[in-house]
Amino acid sequence: MAIINTPLAAGKITFKNRLVYPPITIAKASPDGKVTEDSLEYYQDKMRGGHFSLAIVEHCYITQQGKASAGQVSIADDSKIQGLAKLARVIKGSGTKAVVQMNHAGSCTTQEVTGMKLAGPSPVKNPRQGGVPEEMTKADISRVVSAFAAAAARGKAAGYDGVEIHSAHSYLLNQFYSPLTNLRNDQYGGKLENRISIHLEIIDAVRKAVGRDYPVFLRLGACDYLPGGNKTQDAVKAARIFEDAGIDVLDISGGMCGYVNPENKAPGYFGAESKAIREAVSIPVISTGGVKEAEDVEALLEAGVADLIGVGRTVMKDSAWAGRTIAFYR
């Protein structure tokens, strides 16, 4: 049997195959961040047939200040649980596991979107988009930690099989992780261990909110692909620390350049980073990026690039792609 169709038991969560629908922004939420009928119909279409082992719902903002863009889903208050629960049922009704991603945009947004001043680890212009944020105080950081924990509790209450902490694509936690945007000289800045202190506080708070047995994922923007930014060795070191802190699955993507790799356009273009991380940890690793053909998935699995392969934009264009791919290897 091809690897793509083999199950993977990973402690707290079991995957029926190796194909993942990754968190892709569809911008179909209401102005106040509620899941809409358009959102439900979109996911129903993509999940039809139950060909994915897992679907990770697009990044949901945990506070108004952390909203990234118009049409984004909110997980910032209890009034959103009902809509999120409907979405979880749509995904799980197809036989696919459902995880919801939690995010704070930090400086990767605008005041027009949030109605608030930009916040970030340091007053440095975001390399991807946005202006110069105000430097977050320790009290600000504590509030963000609490907001992630509260959001995780809502995700669990809504019936999701797990939650994912977003630290990629130049959003807030990626900004702390990257030496390009984190110039702090306190316990949250400087060496790598300090730059991921906020991550460890969030992981601890989330774990307390959802319990020891509930799956918690983390999406890591492994490399910045910019001079002076994070490199693969930094990602490997961070991944080991996150595993020790209790993360169950690592979802590897790009950093300050967003979800592209300017140095590699081949299928699985974050493969070098995800493979190095997979070889350093014992928890499952997801790799997403540039997969277009059925053969790409199996080739990446055979090469040991990751345990699970995410395919998003190809499926956005062709809802039948996953079904054809799974059937191709039966």
Automatic annotation (TrEMBL):
Pfam families: Oxidored_FMN. It comes from Anaerovorax odorimutans. Coiled coil: none annotated. The lineage of its organism: Bacteria, Bacillati, Bacillota, Clostridia, Peptostreptococcales. Residues 6-324 form the NADH:flavin oxidoreductase/NADH oxidase N-terminal domain. Keywords: Flavoprotein, FMN, NADP, Oxidoreductase. It comes from the Bacteria. This is NADH:flavin oxidoreductase. Its cofactor is FMN.
